[in-house]
Amino acid sequence: MSGSRLPEVLTVAELVHHGPLAKAIMLADANLDAQVRYVVLVSDLDQTRSCRPNTALVLHSPAAQGGWALESALRAAWERGAACVIAPAGSTVNRSTIALAERLHVPLFVVEGDPAQHALELAAAVASPGAARAQLAARCASSISEQSSLRGIVGVINTELPGTSVALVAEDGQVLAGKVAAVGGQVRIPVPAVDGKPWAHLVARLSAPSPSGAETVTTILRLARAPLSASAAKPKLALARRGAQERLLLEALLSDRPDADTEQAARELGWRFDEMNVAVLLRPAAGAPSLDPDIAAAGVLAGWHEAFADHQLVPHGEGWVSWWSGPELTTGRVLSRLRRRLPRIRCALPLSAGLGEPGRGIDGLRRSLHEAALASSVAIRSGPGAVESFGALGPRVVLASLQHEELTTAAETALAALLTSADGDVLVRTLCAVLDCGGSTTQAAARLGVHRNTVSGRLDRIRARGIAFDDPDRRLAIHVACFALLGDRATVPPGGSPDGTA
């Protein structure tokens, strides 16, 4: 009937791996994906003429004795489309027999004991494939529970699922464990991280796809999800626990009077302060998703140690602090490396960073950290991966700390004459650049990436709208208003053209 469920059928491979054939000796392993629908105990080779396709032929001793008895049984199995041939121990088997089985693609097994008993066990498994698959799932679950690594868990699945290739694939397509041949397979199960979001997928490729086989594989892959998530989370959670301890130590160290025990504990961790130190403060970029603090810390710390294994990172305030030490360390060197690598950090939070100026000793680090916090207030509005230096920002870092809702409202009122014009945004950018450059139209033009005459023309239009930016009593207020409206967009690198106009 249309839409009805297909009957469950076991394959030879399933019977070998978790059924009665697990006790058999496999001589020819060709076509193990063949389905087994029936079981027949053969006492006389003439019985094979009435066998239906997909039958497991279990040979009784009389049918397997003689010089060519087994070869004849194999040919009969091939002609009737049988699933496999099972011979009793003591049957005449030589290299030519095995070669014939492989050439005909007929799986060949030898079993100890009474063939009739084996036939009964096979018939029971074929009659109730659901029970056989439940046994496989239970065995897989038990074996998986004994593994603690990603490779170990995926290895168990590949071992327990014959005819199936399984791999653990990261979101970026990297194969973390298992067989590369599984990539692009028919079954794909997401593996969640501790925050519930998928960080990888279990992918399986079945060499002989079938509805029942795919269902069995899906069930087993789902059993592995929780152990895989726990295995992946262990190092991250360990980092988070260590981070919580280091947070307390750093707070004590940065206090007004750290005691000798605190300084000794810091030295034991390898923290150095006697050289020049540049503080780095990481913070979530503006618009970052809200995450559980422990989960966020675990992800950030793990991502940082992948990108900057030679530099510590410690939770601090609303972010994470690092300090880079060296006798000839410069902010520019740190800035360059951070801008290159920070966007590559893989974690759930998009990050930005602020840098302080170099300082010596704990007092110098304390000052550098305060400067890094101010610089980070600009960086977080510049988007994920942005890195700002306190020294390069200069007075603009003070303007950044002033930005809030009430100030923005006041700025919109003060510069309403510009904002209501069609090119208002361009005029505000130009005005901010001129004020940043101390009134120099040449420097402002270079910053905006336009011609000096273009800047002069815009200034004429600004004056015509009643904005007296040349008035010393109004200049500071107008400058603050521009920055409040533009925020991080007010900081334009030399040669850049934020408005795209000439």
UniProtKB/TrEMBL annotation:
InterPro entries found in the cross-reference section: CdaR-like_regulators, CdaR_GGDEF, PucR_C-HTH_dom, PucR_C-HTH_sf
Membrane-traversing stretches: none
Domain CdaR GGDEF-like: 257-375
Domain PucR C-terminal helix-turn-helix: 427-482
Pfam families for the chain: GGDEF_2, HTH_30
Similarity-based family: Belongs to the CdaR family.
Protein name: PucR family transcriptional regulator
Species of provenance: Prauserella endophytica
